[in-house]
């Protein structure tokens, strides 16, 4: 049976990036990826400037589009913004994830594809992972298995709350591709979702088009996505004549995204990263920057723990402290407060509040910048929250007395 320093379960960005960092530090590891090479992953494919700052330079062939003009559409308003000195890119996760796994392999990691973890056993002496095709022993485990409920159960953990996303890959007309070049479009409209949004994220020949909401509203998401594509007053004009296309063999997909962080994403001899740690933006549900950051922090903690041979839960608790410092306090907790201000309001209040917010942003440069930061991650959510909170009384005045009173007294419809 193989013996290694670290076993990583899951070969998405968090697992592959953690493998890369540990291999670069000189540790032996096995990365278990359940899918084949180039497998499809449901994802809109946005890579923010923050994520780009953490990654090695992306190969040109992975970049489907460069974007520096985020747009937000509410039911009755629209806001166009421009990143002043940076840009994000669009990728398909088929190639992006494989690139990261190949980087880890080049650095010395043993990467196994079609190696689905089936069981994990943790003892005082190490970890033992049984996977389809074999087994491996290690000194420590990194869980990068996404929202795999079986893995949570094996580790004695409760999975995080989630949202549900559905997405189609479409090929667009050439004139539409030219029109949306450099943009990413977010649609916040009660007819689509009150705990999320719909999106059009451009690619070189088409776009990833999707919608997300709470799982209990999932039964209607496919119908809402179809309405968005065919009948939405703005989006349907851009998507008219679009043809379904397949990326990695997939056109229509659905996936869960975490909606809250785990309280303790660590234990004796294991750390959880990315989606498995419940890490996603509470406002936009972007997860890549959090996946990469958590992977970096997990590798940092494991380097010290492996060198000192201190892998018990108390020794690994430093990981939780680093997450709090780099993600929870500046990003996730303020982001959750932002989300609570707007999501799950009754439909007319949801639309009215968003219309008023975007209209104010046209006149208010500081607010416009804050809404841009929310998407681009140029600044953390604590700064976005500071700015938006400071505009609440202006928002109330713009809404008018009756709607403002209802907004202040409104309960949530979850």
Description:
A hairpin with a 2-residue loop joins strand 10 and strand 11 (134-143). The chain is 40% helix and 23% strand. It has 15 helices and 19 strands. The strands form three sheets. Strands 1, 2, 8, 9, 10, 11, 18 and 19 form an eight-stranded mixed beta sheet that branches. The chain has helices at 13-24, 49-54, 93-106, 149-154, 174-180, 221-231, 235-239, 288-308, 313-316, 318-342, 347-363, 365-376, 381-390, 392-399, 401-409; strands at residues 2-9, 29-32, 46-47, 65-67, 69-73, 78-80, 88-90, 110-112, 117-122, 127-131, 134-143, 162-171, 183-187, 198-202, 206-213, 243-244, 252-258, 266-267, 270-272. The chain is an alpha+beta fold.
At a glance:
The protein contains 15 helices and 19 strands. The protein has 414 residues and is an alpha+beta fold. The strands form three sheets. Strands 1, 2, 8, 9, 10, 11, 18 and 19 form an eight-stranded mixed β-sheet that branches. Strands 5, 6, 12, 13, 14, 15, 16 and 17 form an eight-stranded mixed β-sheet that branches.
């Amino acid at each position: 049976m193989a013996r290694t320093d670290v076993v990583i379960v899951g070969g998405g960005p968090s697992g592959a990036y953690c493998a890369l960092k540990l291999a670069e530090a000189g540790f032996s590891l096995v990365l278990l990826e359940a899918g084949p090479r180039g497998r499809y992953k449901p994802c809109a494919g946005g890579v923010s400037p923050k994520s780009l700052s953490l990654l090695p330079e992306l190969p040109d062939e992975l970049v489907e589009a460069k974007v520096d003009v985020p747009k937000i559409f509410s039911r009755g308003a629209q806001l166009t913004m421009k990143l002043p000195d940076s840009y994000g890119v669009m990728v398909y996760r088929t190639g992006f994830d494989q690139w990261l796994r190949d980087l880890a392999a080049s650095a010395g990691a043993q990467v196994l594809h079609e190696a689905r973890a089936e069981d994990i056993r943790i003892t005082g002496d190490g970890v033992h992972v049984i996977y389809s095709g074999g087994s491996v022993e290690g000194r420590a485990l990194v869980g990068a298995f996404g929202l795999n409920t079986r893995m949570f159960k094996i580790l004695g953990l409760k999975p995080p709350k989630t949202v549900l996303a559905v997405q189609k890959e479409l090929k667009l007309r050439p004139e539409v591709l030219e029109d949306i070049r450099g943009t990413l479009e977010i649609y916040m409209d009660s007819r689509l979702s009150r705990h999320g949004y719909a999106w059009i994220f451009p690619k070189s020949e088409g776009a990833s088009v999707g919608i997300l909401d709470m799982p209990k509203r999932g039964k209607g998401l496919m119908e809402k996505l179809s309405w968005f594509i065919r009948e939405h007053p703005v989006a349907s004009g851009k998507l008219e004549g679009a043809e379904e296309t397949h990326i990695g063999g997939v056109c229509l997909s659905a996936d869960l995204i975490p909606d809250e962080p785990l309280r303790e994403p660590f234990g004796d001899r294991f750390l959880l990263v990315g989606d498995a740690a419940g890490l996603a933006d509470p406002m936009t549900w972007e997860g890549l920057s959090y996946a990469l950051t958590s992977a970096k922090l997990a590798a940092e903690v494991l380097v010290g723990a492996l060198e000192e041979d201190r892998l018990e839960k108390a020794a690994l608790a430093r990981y939780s402290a680093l997450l709090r410092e780099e993600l929870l306090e500046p990003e996730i907790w303020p982001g959750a407060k932002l989300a609570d201000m707007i999501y799950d309001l009754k439909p007319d209040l949801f639309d009215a509040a968003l219309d008023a917010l975007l209209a104010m942003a046209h006149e208010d440069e500081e607010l416009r910048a804050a809404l841009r930061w929310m998407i681009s991650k140029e600044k953390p959510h604590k700064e976005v929250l500071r700015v938006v909170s400071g505009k609440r009384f202006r928002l109330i005045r713009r809404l008018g007395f009756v709607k403002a009173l209802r907004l202040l007294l409104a309960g949530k419809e979850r």
